[in-house]
Amino acid sequence: MSLEQKIMTELKAAMLAKNEAALRSLRAVKAAILLAKTSEGHSGDLKEEEEIKLLQKLVKQRKDSLEIFTQQKRDDLAQKEAEEIAIIEKFLPAQMSPEELKAIITAIVTETGASSPADMGKVMGAATKQLAGKADGKTISAMVKEILAGK
Q1: Statement to judge: residues 67 and 121 lie in one domain
Q2: Tell me, what's the pLDDT at 67?
Q3: Any residues with CB less than 8 A from the CB of 66 and at least 6 apart, and which?
């Protein structure tokens, strides 16, 4: 079942349950999918990796907003963002634990022959391809820096 079909099923359930947070979140995801499908250069269907990137982008936007609202002590708006993040993350693959992430990045560092922080670009390229959808870029970057600094 495609992401769009899953969203529509959840949207119907949220409407029946009168769940405002879920409706808000699912409508935002649906709108983003429609924009992506109709954007220039797309044939009308999204690949699974494109769907994951889209969801990650939506979660990142909400996390950024949540951070700003928390700093400005706008708890009402921060609560809405946190609710939306939780709902959107249900459609993303499970994120890797720090231990699993460290093991995979260490293997990538060994494969690429990286030996210093100057080689971060090589490692990040391979790591972001291999870990797409399983960890966010900020976490990958921090782990790569930590591993290369320790070499």
Answers
A1: no
A2: 95
A3: 78, 81, 82, 85
pLDDT of residue 151: 60
d(CA 38, CA 44): 6
Same domain, 117 and 48: no
| Blockwise average pLDDT, block size 10, the chain, 151 residues | 88 94 94 88 78 90 95 95 93 85 88 82 86 81 85 60
Query: CATH no. for residue 138?
Result: 1.10.10.410
Domain that holds residue 40: 3-89
pLDDT of residue 64: 94
The DSSP call for residue 119 is G
Tokens 């494109």 correspond to 50
Helix (H, G, I), strand (E, B) or coil at 106: helix
Closest of 120, 122, 115 to residue 143, by C-alpha: 120
